[in-house]
Amino acid sequence: MSIEAEALLQEAKESIEAAQNYRSELQQRLHGLSQARKQVRGSASQTRDALQRHFQELQTAVSRLLTERLSALLQEVDNIELDSVSPLDDCQKLIEHGVSTADELLREGEAAIRCGINEKEDKLGSFTKKALQIQLDSLPEVPALVDVPCLSAQLDDSLLHMFRTHVARHGSVASHPPVQIEELVERPGGVLVRWCKVDDDFTPQDYRLQYRRGNSSQYEDAYIGKDTEFLVLHLDPHIDHLFRVCARGEGRTEWSPWSIPQTGYTTLAPHEWLPGVDGYILSSRKNIAMRNDSSPGLGGVLYSNSASYFCGQTLTFKITAAGQTDKRDSLGVCADSRPATDSLQRDQAVCISTNVSADSLVASAPTYNAIALQASRVRIPARSNPPSFYPTLGSCHLYTVL
């Protein structure tokens, strides 16, 4: 094959490879567009459902409140009517009894007048005596109209106006949540989550971070506070976790919509102390070590279970309590694990000790709460893998490695 043919063949191969890469990139972008469209339509459907459900609940609640108020007012009308009509009924019965008595007296009087001469005197005498007993000049008092209730309903449009004003401002639709996750950084046994505000008109008062395992449907709270980053610990390595964040506006009680969930994971094993070292007691998670004072002469260097610290990371020793200081008290990192070595003051190790340089630092460490170490490369070694280190403790009392 001639040189020209070989060049054309090579050019054709490169064009084919470029076309394949181009097609692959376009397919990825199509997938991205499909995901974006799915997110828009899915969130729109969820928002419609949320709006309809919320306003239906409001309608039901408002209708119930109005019905309850109407029932209370009608009951009040019934009570006033009953209390007011009862004495009128009693008065009516008294008057009707008087009318009946007067009718009977009239009939007797007319009969006495029409009776014969022989009976007239006796009949008239009996009638006159009965008339005197009835006290025809005594009349019951009937209340004037101004003295009896005249019910009315006091209604105005202020409630309707206020309701209309509040309804017009109730609820809103946002195209994006006010906060979004900005960065997920793996840490030993955890993920550092950073988030930021993306809505300039939103003033956050508190943030709320939640996470869940990829195969779980239940989120759990990881952090509520004012910071914009949080280290979520106790995560299993190489397992996907979903993170989401929301915020509560200043002066508000309800939380904002959740951010778009982001998937993160860590490939780094958590910091754990090496178990089985004489002179130390470890917590159940092996991240807290306490010197056992009942074992005098023991308690040399306590190494981490693995080389879990890498350049560029921040390693924090959190001091939760301290006892009597010892000249061997120290903490630091080393590039190799030497179980037979009872000191950190050696090659390939960096430590802070009460006996060397930072006397006041470790001696008063509890007032510092934590001591952070950070390493970076100053020379690129021949090997390609980044160097790793063992977090270490000297003869110290109680520490937590985060």
TrEMBL record:
Chief location of this protein within or outside the cell: cytoplasm
Gene Ontology cellular-component terms listed: cytoplasm
Sequence ranges assigned to domain Fibronectin type-III in this UniProt record: 177-270
Coiled coil start-end: 2-83
Matching InterPro entries: FN3_dom, FN3_sf, Ig-like_fold
Function recorded in the entry: May play a role in the negative regulation of cell cycle progression.
Similarity remark: Belongs to the cytokine receptor-like factor 3 family.
Protein name: Cytokine receptor-like factor 3
Organism, scientific name: Cyprinus carpio carpio
